[in-house]
C-alpha cells in the first residue's frame, strides 16, 4: 500500500486461516457494499481521496488505460463503506494466481478517522477475502500510513512476517 519514499519502513503481514481472525463488530451506522459494476474512475477517485493524507503516490502518474486495466480486472474487487450516505472508506482485494488474496488498498477518508470504523472495515475485508476462497490473505503497510494501521492489522489477527526499510 505504501509508495517508495525516504527512509520508509514497510511491514508485510498475512493471515493463513480465517480461524486466525479476531473480528470487530459493525457500528450500526456503517454499510459496506461491493462495487459489482466496475468503474475505473471510481477506483482512481477512492485511491486519491483516501491516499492523499498518506502519500499514496505510486499510481498518480497512471494513464486512464492503466487504471482501467487494473480496476476492471476480474482479479480485483472493490468495496466501499458508507456512513449516512457518504463514502467513508474503501478497500480493494486482488486475487493472485497462487490463490492468495492481497488487500491492495485499504483506508478511511479523513472525516471518518477515529470513529471506530477501521477495525470493522478490516474485519469486512478479511471476511470478503476468505469468502473468495483465499489460500491466505496478505497486506503491507508502512510508516507513512495512519499511526494505527499496523496495530489494526495485528488486532484483527494478521501476523507480521517481514519488515523492510527502504531509503530510496
Biggest sheet character: 7 strands, mixed
Annotated CATH architecture:
3-Layer(aba) Sandwich
The first-to-last residue Cα distance is 16 Å
What's the count of strands? Answer: 7
Output the structural class.
Answer: alpha+beta
Give the percentage of residues in beta strands.
25-35%
SSE string: EEHHEEEHEHE
Overall tally of domains? 1
- Lateral arrangement of strands in the main beta sheet: 2-3-4-5-6-1-7
Which parts are unreliable, with pLDDT below 50 for 5 consecutive residues or more? none
Rg, Å, rounded? 15 Å
Shape estimate: globular
- Per CATH, the class reads Alpha Beta
Annotated CATH homologous superfamily: Gcn5-related N-acetyltransferase (GNAT)
Structure description:
By secondary structure, the protein is an alpha+beta fold. The chain has a seven-stranded mixed β-sheet with strand order 2-3-4-5-6-1-7, sandwiched between helices. Strand 4 and strand 5 form a beta hairpin. It has a single domain, classed as Aminopeptidase, CATH 3.40.630. It is built from four helices and seven strands; from the N terminus they run ββααβββαβαβ. Helix 1 crosses helix 2.
